[in-house]
């Protein structure tokens, strides 16, 4: 038994003893005036126990508010954890889908698969390949130290080019170039 419990019991017993003493004194005073057979009309204000301290009511209210706050925080934390777990599961599903799409893309770009699909659909290798020159060549070759271009027209420098380089290129759909030997002969 703790010291606080003993103190409370001692105080309660002292209050009860004092209340009994006061009640006995009150009875003696009133017994001389008149004999009563019932408790009707008896003043019990002096007999009642002393009121308890009212400090427990605010403490209980504060404890209740604190408990509600802690429970609200824990519920919010649980909701956040569930949302995080759901987001992680969704991320994992998206990563798996991305991996599957990467595998499919690499399969579609595979040269052997493309060759098989082309052969299956009737495509054949090209009979001739035309290599076109780059229309925008790299840095200019003919510049002087002052930075001026010698005989520049547009982006190309004139002077170092041959007559063949200036000839227009045939269009891609024009067909094979004519043979030089059969150029003059009629078909």
Description of the structure:
The protein has helices at 3-33, 56-109, 111-120, 163-166, and strands at residues 152-153, 156-157. With 187 residues, it is mostly helical. The chain has a two-stranded antiparallel sheet with strand order 1-2. The chain is rod-shaped. The N and C termini lie far apart (129 Å). Mean pLDDT is 76; it is low at 154-163.
Considering the chains and any ligands shown, give keywords for the structure.
187 residues; mainly alpha; two-stranded antiparallel sheet; 4 helices; 53% helix; rod-shaped
Layout of helices and strands:
Elements: H1 3-33, H2 56-109, H3 111-120, E1 152-153, E2 156-157, H4 163-166
Antiparallel strand pairs: 1-2
State mean pLDDT (0 to 100 scale): 76
Helical coverage, percent range: 40-55%
**Structural classification:** mainly alpha
- Pick out the low-confidence regions: 154-163
Q: Trace the largest sheet across and list its strands.
A: 1-2
Q: How much is the radius of gyration in Å?
A: 54 Å
Approximately what portion of the residues adopt beta-strand conformation? under 5%
Q: If helices are DSSP runs of H or I spanning 4 or more residues, what is the number of helices?
A: 4
What is the first-to-last residue Cα distance?
129 Å
Work out the number of β strands.
Answer: 2
What overall geometry do the principal axes of the alpha carbons give?
A: rod-shaped
How is the biggest beta sheet arranged?
2 strands, antiparallel
Order of helices and strands: HHHEEH
């Amino acid at each position: 038994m703790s010291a606080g419990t003993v103190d409370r019991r001692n105080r309660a017993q002292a209050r009860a003893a004092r209340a009994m003493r006061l009640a006995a004194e009150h009875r003696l005073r009133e017994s001389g005036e008149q004999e009563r057979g019932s408790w009707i009309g008896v003043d019990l204000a002096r007999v009642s126990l002393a009121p308890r301290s009212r400090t427990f009511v605010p403490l209980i209210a504060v404890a209740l508010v604190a408990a509600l706050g802690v429970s609200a925080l824990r519920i919010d934390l649980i909701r956040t954890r569930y949302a995080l777990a759901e987001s992680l599961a969704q991320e994992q599903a998206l990563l798996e889908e991305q991996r599957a799409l990467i595998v499919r893309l690499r399969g579609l770009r595979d040269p052997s698969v493309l060759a098989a699909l082309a052969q299956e659909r009737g495509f054949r290798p090209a009979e001739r390949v035309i290599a076109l020159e780059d229309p925008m060549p790299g840095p200019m070759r003919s510049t002087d130290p002052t930075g001026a271009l010698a005989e520049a027209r547009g982006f190309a420098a004139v002077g170092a080019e041959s007559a063949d380089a200036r000839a227009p290129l045939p269009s891609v759909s024009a067909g094979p170039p004519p043979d030089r030997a059969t150029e003059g002969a009629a078909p």
